[in-house]
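Need a sequence for this fold. Nothing fancy.
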């Protein structure tokens, strides 16, 4: 049932884009449409055929996992794909534009000269934009693992401990609790390093009076969780406290506004305006958030350039941050689901982590 619904979405997209076939290589899209969890393969989607191609390393796995009309093994990818495109009798071909140039070139060189190739990027976003109940429950479970994982290492978050050791312990806890994998390299950025929005954990030791930002998540059956907490190690100075309060308020205001029908640019603006009004406008350099799903960063994007409107079933992050060089930084991130009339926060880190002054 699931795969037939998804397949229908892809077929609708084909007709909307006036294409004969989609050539998909990005593994998240392949997994979404066929269930294949391996890393090498090509999925061809036509209005009435779903053809999965892979090499001999993955044939057994594909035969077990894949929901498609047929699974074909190739020796040379470009040859295998071209042969299928010829037998499907297609002429207008859409392919993912983040495909390596060499692969596309191989398809094009071996294919029929009359074929039209269309680069697709954002055009494919509608495919995975609205999450099903099953996808939502997997992400909610991945977010629950975050709660349990953080609780397990909470005691470690104290002065004298290395950022790297916290990251490692958190990753270990998440895996032990049942996560398939961490969602990305865990960020633990303390003190002045907190001003690096994506500073991964280092050998720096945590120090009393600092803030520490922990951005982490995990993967469960392909689906991700992503969240950030910023904690204080004892008493912090007035400026850090002001930054923390500013970011928390920006986060809470944007989160409260999430509902179907609101423009994503407006959510970004709500958080940004508050940060600007507090005097930190120059220090919030990234967008407010991003979609989460089979990929940890996917559509939609929440930024001053967003065009999309919040719709039921979208899952995205709200993650304002302020990063002041030479002072420190704060980011607070939650994952939120747009529901029929409002929203539901999927990440559920207890409130005590929101309160500054951990010990
Ligand atoms: Zn994020
Ligand atoms: Zn994050």
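Here you go.
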């Amino acid at each position: 049932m699931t795969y037939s619904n998804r397949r229908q979405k892809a077929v609708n997209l084909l007709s909307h884009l006036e294409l004969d076939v989609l050539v998909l290589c990005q593994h998240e899209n392949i997994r979404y449409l066929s269930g294949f969890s391996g890393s090498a393969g090509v999925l061809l989607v036509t209005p009435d055929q779903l053809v999965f191609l892979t090499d001999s390393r993955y044939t057994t796995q594909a035969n077990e996992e894949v929901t498609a009309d047929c699974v074909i093994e190739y020796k040379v990818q470009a040859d295998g794909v071209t042969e299928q495109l010829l037998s499907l009798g297609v002429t207008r071909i859409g392919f993912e534009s983040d495909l390596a140039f060499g692969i596309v070139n191989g398809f094009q060189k071996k294919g029929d000269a009359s074929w039209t190739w269309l680069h697709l990027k954002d055009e494919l976003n509608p495919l995975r934009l609205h999450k099903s109940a099953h996808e939502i429950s997997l992400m909610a479970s991945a977010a629950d693992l975050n709660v349990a994982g953080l609780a397990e290492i909470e005691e470690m978050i104290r002065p004298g401990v290395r950022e790297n050791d916290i990251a490692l312990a958190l990753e270990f806890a998440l895996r032990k609790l049942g996560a398939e994998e961490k969602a990305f390299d865990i960020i633990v950025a303390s003190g002045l390093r907190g001003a690096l929005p994506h500073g991964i954990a280092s050998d720096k030791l945590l120090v009393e009076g600092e803030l520490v930002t922990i951005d982490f998540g995990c993967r469960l059956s392909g689906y991700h969780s992503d969240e950030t907490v910023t904690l204080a190690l004892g008493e912090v100075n007035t400026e850090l406290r002001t930054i923390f309060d500013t970011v928390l308020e920006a986060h809470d205001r944007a989160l409260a506004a999430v509902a179907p029908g609101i423009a994503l640019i407006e959510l970004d603006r709500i958080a940004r305006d508050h940060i600007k009004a507090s005097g930190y406008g120059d220090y919030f350099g990234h967008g407010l958030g991003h979609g989460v799903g089979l990929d940890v960063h996917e559509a939609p994007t929440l930024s001053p350039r967003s065009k999309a409107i919040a719709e039921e079933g979208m899952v995205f992050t709200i993650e304002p941050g302020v990063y002041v060089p030479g002072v420190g930084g704060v980011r607070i991130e939650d994952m939120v689901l747009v529901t029929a009339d409002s929203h539901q926060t999927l990440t559920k880190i207890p409130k005590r982590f929101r309160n500054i002054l951990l010990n």
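For context: The pocket of zinc ion (ligand 2) is lined by residues 215, 226, 228, 333 (CB under 6 Å).
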